[in-house]
Design brief:
The structure is a homodimer of 109-residue chains.
Chain A lengths: L9 H8 L5 E2 H11 L8 H14 L2 E8 L2 E8 L1 H25 L6
Antiparallel strand pairs in A: 1-3, 2-3
Helix pairs in contact in A: 1-4
Chain A binds a DNA duplex (30 and 30 nucleotides) through α2, α3 and β3.
Chain lengths: 109, 109
Amino acid sequence: MNSDALRGHMDALILSVLEDRPLHGYAIIEALQERSGGALNVPTGTLYPALRRLERIGYLTSEWATVGGRKRRTYRLTAAGRRQLAGERSAWQAFTAAIGSVLTPRGAG
Amino acid sequence: MNSDALRGHMDALILSVLEDRPLHGYAIIEALQERSGGALNVPTGTLYPALRRLERIGYLTSEWATVGGRKRRTYRLTAAGRRQLAGERSAWQAFTAAIGSVLTPRGAG
DNA sequence: GCCTACATATAGAGAGTCTACATATAGCGT
DNA sequence: ACGCTATATGTAGACTCTCTATATGTAGGC
């Protein structure tokens, strides 16, 4: 599963996996896979530009680190990012309620 | 509510409101508003191109009619459209399950 | 005559996701 | 030494859909 359905929901996903602890890009991809039960396979060409965008907006900050000889850029939620995450969550509820009520079969009634 | 979140879900919405009976474009917009409790306001610049695309793909057929002096183009689901609708519904279930499990807060656990 | 509701349609902008490619280190097996 | 896989970040360009704005026309109420 994937395609373009994620469009517009990537922000919420990224902010959500960063809620409890900072992570670097590669680890975010793995976290999304794990937490979705393998359903979400976000390509690097999607994630990295999204992270930069989120940082530019002010929802994330990043720091470089070297671990085991490999460079990592670790992303952390800002206060604005946490507020945005809360907003994304309620927007998600409204979104699924709206789509769900349209998608529910009505039968012949 | 609206924005770009609908991207990738318009097809399912349109096919779903056409499931029970054929409708013309304007009536589809109204049906989406009603069934979503006013949450979905699909602009004509979104709907009409989408209907043409769906017809081109083979999920819909259309017929012109004149009612009360006004011309209407009425869209009807094809057999392929009904199969697609079934697929869209199960895809929607998988989609919400995946996103939902990522968005669910984990606390300090 | 004017406004609103009904009804369809297109052009162009805009934005985000995807594919494909480029680069580099670490560790394993042979 | 060589190749492969996992780890790790990043960009360019194509793609596709949605949105805004605009255009056209009929019907009915005031």
